[in-house]
Write a structure and sequence with these properties.
277 residues, 25% helix, dioxygenase activity, TfdA_dioxygenase, binds manganese (II) ion, TauD/TfdA-like, seven-stranded mixed beta sheet, binds N-oxalylglycine, alpha+beta, TauD-like_sf, Taurine catabolism dioxygenase TauD
Length: 277
């Protein structure tokens, strides 16, 4: 289907060149995307120049597309702008939160299944996106760790993630963060197909039944383990690149860039379709 398809490393990612945005609206292309996401976790299409309409068409063939409550584009409400510039998105203030390893929708009952992100404008400094495969990092744990983690549960909160970006919040900010309810998930997410991944990241605030400090240490240790170079990749964006990922197993973060950077991404989100178990 795609002539130039190169795996990026043994544990994560595949890169495809020579495909334009319009050809990704072919159902066979979408089917191949689905297979590649399952196999590699992160699928990088170089310089597709995909437009919003085609991005939405492709996204709909991959799953149920989330319509964000805020920040959608006028013509395409499914498409959010990701930028630190408040003139480009009402969510600019929250997007510093993307600088810390996270999965999207970790405080939802069912985290989002996938994310599609395309670069309209890139940053001169910073602004790469990094991904880490927690199916692979889980698999490589010792049997002792796997046994210990089997029944642990973790509380995820929006406030924990925002506090990393803004350690000194105002009362008003604290109140806004607290409006997003906390969510408890198992540390290890077991899929119907038997695959397992680690549900960790910036939102992970404590381990249920553990002293706070001990929980923080465990989450910190697992984050450091999972984001080692062997399980991760760093994508340096060119205009028109499109990256699709399995959000349920791929931690990700943006390498910090300036609020005055021209960096502008368009994004769609696929709703989760498998309960956390
Ligand atoms: C996001 C996100 C990463 C980036 O939009 O959820 O993590 O590099 N973006 O902008
Ligand atoms: Mn994200």
């Amino acid at each position: 289907m795609f002539a130039d398809t190169q795996p990026i490393s043994a544990e994560i990612g595949v890169e495809i060149s020579g495909v334009d945005g319009r050809s990704l609206t072919d159902p066979r292309a979408a089917e191949r995307c689905r297979e590649l996401i399952d196999e590699y976790g992160v699928v990088v299409f170089r310089e597709t120049g995909i437009d919003d309409a085609d991005l939405v068409t492709l996204s709909r063939m991959l799953g149920e597309v989330v319509v964000p409550r805020m920040g959608g584009q006028e013509d395409h409400p499914e498409v959010s702008a990701i930028s630190l510039d408040p003139t480009k998105t009402v969510l600019a203030a929250y997007n510093q939160g993307t600088f810390h390893w996270h999965i999207d929708g970790a405080t939802d009952e069912i985290p989002q299944k996938g994310t599609l992100l395309t670069a309209l404008e890139v940053s001169d400094e910073g602004g790469d996106t990094e991904f880490a495969n927690t199916y692979a990092s889980y698999e490589a744990l010792s049997d002792r760790d796997k046994a210990e983690f089997e029944n642990l549960r973790v509380v995820h909160s929006f406030a924990a993630a925002q506090r990393l970006a803004n350690p000194d919040p105002t009362e008003k900010q604290l109140a806004a963060w607290a409006r997003v309810p906390e969510r408890e998930h198992p540390l290890v997410w077991t899929r119907r197909n038997g695959r397992k991944s680690l549900l960790i990241g910036a939102t992970a605030s404590r381990v249920v039944g553990w002293p706070e400090e001990k929980g923080r240490r465990l989450v910190g240790r697992l984050l450091a383990w999972s984001t080692q170079p062997r399980f991760s990749l760093r994508h340096h964006w060119r205009p028109g690149d499109l990256v699709l990922w399995d959000n349920t197993g791929m931690l990700h973060r943006a390498v910090p860039y300036s609020p005055t950077s021209p960096r502008l991404m368009h994004r769609t989100t696929l709703a989760g379709d498998e309960a956390v178990a």
